[in-house]
Structure formats: structure tokens, C-alpha cells
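Problem 12. The chain below contains 584 residues. Write out its predicted structure in C-alpha cell notation.
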Amino acid sequence: MTHKYSGSHRKSNGNSDHEKLSFIPLGGLGEIGKNMYILEYNNEIIVIDSGLKFPDSELPGIDYIVPDISYLEANRDKILAIIITHGHEDHVGGLPYVLPRLNVPLYGTQLTLGLIKNKLQDDLPGFRPETYEVRAGDVIKIGSFTIRFIAVAHSIPDGVALSIDTPLGRVIHSGDFKLDSTPVDGRVTDYGAFAEEGEKGVLLFCSDSTNAERKGFTPSEKTIAATLEQLFRAFRNKRIIISSFASNVHRIQQVADVSARFNRRIAFLGRSMIRNAELAMELGYLKIDRKSIISIEESWKYSDNQLVIVTTGSQGEPFSGLVTMSRGENKSITLGEHDVVFLLASVIPGNEKLINNTINRLFAQGCEVVYEKERQTHVSGHASAEELKIMLNIVKPQYFVPIHGEYKHLVRHSQLAQEVGIPQRNIFLMINGDILTFTKNAPPKKHGHVQSGAVIVDGNAAGSIKSEVLKERREIAEDGVLVVSAAVDDRGNLLAPVAIETHGVFISDDTKNIFNELYASAEQAVKESSGKKINVDSLKKLIKTRVRDVLRKRNSSFAVVMPVVSLKHSGFYDDTSLFEKDFF
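Solution.
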């Protein structure tokens, strides 16, 4: 349920004799993604954002990564709310994992809550969190915290920064922002509000560091319109396929505007793209003549120069619209020389291989492909170095913590802060789990550490990253697996011929002889163990050693060998051994 917010939420527990304010990052420091920050005053906690991070090649098969919230679970009774700054996945993607465990009120702007609702409908269809809708300019009180929501320009509408008044001083959290003077929706970063808060006095400023290494200013989102205009003219007679982030409503708006000028209809492809576009149009953030929108199934009715397809897949996601098209697996769209593909997004670190593979497949299909390395098809939503310095000068904080970025970004942002006059001793470089504590009449101290880190989400399962599991996955992915099945009695005698099955194992041309040797080595291992009471673990280790020796001698293979031993005794099979697996 969603409420328009008015008034305060939950009374303060009152001040203790030893007032203490702590800032604790649980994610987003030393990395791009899984942003989550805690502000704790005495026995009250508010949480800012709850994001995810996408895995790299070192985490095969993992869907995504979210922050470890052990500290929050242990202090659930203290949590007053989760406040979301905007609707990007690195700030809201962890909510399906986090919200059911904490079950606390959620605050966000209209579009942000709409995107979250769509996400929860997919992942937790029966879950209905308590939500409160806020707008830029609102001031609300939650316990001891008085929060002002400040408009910021970013690559998604309805983003906000937070000015949080506490009994020990004011904390400003910038959210993701840039100082775009000509945003697509006309909603600029509210310099005046930041200046007002700065004049009141800011104890701590926590600011986005993503582009701290980039000199100058981040270009305006509107520069994309000129690029699109040129591309539409250059490929006037081709069918245009555009891939972008489904949440980048500004980019979709510009595509729609240019499409209208060239009399092209728009078809959306990809569930998140369709749902986000529909939501943004319903809420008024996306202004498109609905008569110009067609379903992807109708696209065959239109000639190439009458159609634009807007799809997901800018990061090479395996089941996205662009990737299925590049593989020739989309039932509605078949690509060819009559198509041009525009990738209107930057590469998220770790996705380079996926994107390159997608681009190569698109070229192989005969498409022309236009991406960032060739033309300015993307501008960042994050402030560059000069903008960061301007914001530091406006806010004038007493203390500063760079957030949201890899460690090199945090270091560079801290250097920018020193350039504008903030003493180095007042700048704190933190890592996830660090505790920065403020008390009355004493300088803040960074001391102590709470449990932090990462939780991997794989399908419906979630848990801490276990190195042995990931090692097994990498080995199987790289070398394949060979399964040896043997059924024996309790004296170690074979009850049936040994069975061998391989998956992803390269076998040389002499396949028949190699398999004969593998069978013989496995049977010999069983014979060596026969004649005495069988020890299943010892037998499996011996089979694994004998088979592995043959593979390496004859095939130079390092395949994972998985022995499966079925033991028959006293008239029944011991099922406990049937599914036992060992990896070398």
C-alpha cells in the first residue's frame, strides 16, 4: 500500500546521556553497485537505498549480489525506515531480498515507488510493503531524523538527495546526481536547496564519486538528441533498433521525439522495457502519442523506414530482447542487412565480454552496429570533477565521506575535496562495514566494523559467497565434468558394469580407446577395494585418482571427476551415498 506522506512517523525514543550518531556503509564503497547506507542515532536507524550489483566472470551462474544485512537483522527493532533516492537497480535491486527480512516502511518518490512495485510483483507477488510517497521539496520527520528531499538531475527521473537533520548535526546524502542545466524533463538539480542547507551548516556530506576521475563537466542528456538526429538521417532507409536501460526514461523520451519527427512507429521489446515505459507514461514522466506505439507482433506490417524497436539488452543480458535477436531466437524479429542497432548505454564494469559478444553476433547477422566507441551514444548521469567541486563549495561541509564508487574514485574525490579547502583530517575514506561515529564536543572517529560484504542470489537461493562452491563452478565451466557410476555390494564387488558420462569434456580423436581405459581404470579401482567391508569414501577417492590419471595421461584433460557409488547391502540401496559428490 502506498500513502502520500504527511506528518511524522514513530516518536523518538528520546535522547540518552551519551548521544551518538553513526554513519555505516553496508555497500557502495569500493565498488559500483549494491548501495546501502545506515544512519544511526542512539537507538534509531534509517537506511538509505538497497541496491544490487551484477556479477562478473569470476562468479559464474550467479544472478546478482546484494549487501550482507546481518547488522540490520540483528537491529531490526531500531530501524524506522528505508529511504530510496531513485529507481536504478544499484539502489533498489536488493529490495526483494531485504524488505521481507526487515519489513519496515519504505519511502520514495512516485516513479521510484512505481518501479519498485513492478519489481516486487515479479519477485514477491504476495508481498505488500508499507510505502510512503514523497516529492522533492517535502520535509518529513521520522523519529529523531528530519529529512528534506532535494531534486537532483540524473539519468532517471524523480531522483532526490537527502538532507537529514539529526540532534548532532545535519547530514547530506547526494544520491546520484549531475549538474545538468538542460535536462530532458526540465528538472534541474536544486542548487538553491543545497545552498540553503549549506548556509544552515552541514556536519557531514556523503557524495557520489562515480565520475571523480573525469575532468570537467558531464555533458547534458540533451546532447543525445543531436546524435540521434544524425543517426536517423544517416540510416533513413533502415529499420532502427535501439537498446538502452529500461529505466532511462529520458533516453526513451528522446528516442520517441526523434522517431516522431521521422514518422516512425515505436515497438517496445523486453518485459522490463514494456512495463517501465507503460508506468512512465501512466505517471506522466514519459510523453508519447500512444497512436505511435505498436506491439512487436505488429512490426511486420511496417516497412523498415517506418519502424523503431526499443529494447533491453544494452549490457548483453542473456535473455534480453537484443541478445535473443542477435542469436536469431526471437519469434517476432529476424535481423539482417536491413537493420541498424544503436547501443545507447555505457558498459557496466564486468559486462564487457557479454556486450562484445552481442555486438559480434549482430555484425554476423548482417546488421550495422553503432556504439559508444564510435559516436556519442551515451552520456553519464553522474557529476564529473568540476561539478563535484561546485557541490562541495555549495554544501560547505565540516566533514566529508566520498561514497558510490570504486576505491580509486573515492580517493580521487577526497583529493577534489582537499582542492576546495576541506582539510584532509576532516575527510574519511571508508570501506563497507566501517563505522564513523560523531559525539558531542569531540571530533568524529572511524572505529569498529560491522559485518558487511556480499550475499549472492542464485535463483531463489541466497547466501554468503562460498569460495569452494565458486571454485567448483569455475572448474566445471572451464574443464567439464566426468561422472563415474558404480554399483557395489557391501564386500566391494561390482553388481553391474561401470557407467561413465561426460559433460563438456574434450576427448581426442582416439575416443574409443580412451573410454576403454577409463572403464578399465574405474573397474580396477573397485577390484582393489573388494573382498573386505566397503568404505564408500575411500572407494570414491580411489576411482577419482585412477580415472584422473588416465585423463591427464591420454587426454591432457583436467575435467572434474565425480564418482557416484551405489551401495547394496541387507537387501536395499543406501541412498545416502547415491548423491554424494566430491571435487578435486
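Discussion. The domain at 223-370 is CATH 3.40.50.10710 (Rossmann fold). Students who got a different answer should revisit the alignment rule from Section 12.3.
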